[in-house]
Request: fold
Amino acid sequence: MEKWRRKFQQFMVGRYGADQLSRFLSVCIVVLLVINLFARTHVLYWLAVVLLFYSYYRMFSRNISARFKENERYMGFRFRVTEWGKKWRFRAEQARKYHIYRCPSCGQKIRIPRGHGKVSIHCPKCHTDFIRKS
Ligand SMILES: [Zn+2]
Reply:
């Protein structure tokens, strides 16, 4: 057992190994295979196989800078997705707590807390008063 582990370590010297992208790829592969259990399509199965080969190709690759760049690109993409998700969660929360009304005369957006019945809203920009349900 020890011998095999050493052999594997020697094999991996100078090779790229695992990173965040390879972890993401293995999650994708598992998800694809699980979906494939319920909806048997060749497409999902072969997509999983292709991803598996790609993932191993990256792990055993000696072109470390190219693999590093791929991972950087993936991390940038992941960052954008999580930021987008945060933005949407924030918006949903705001919509639950507040009504956004536009001033009828100047179009200024005004945020009104929900649940106070009919309220008179005073526009801070043009000082028009108007009545809306909160
Ligand atoms: Zn106004």
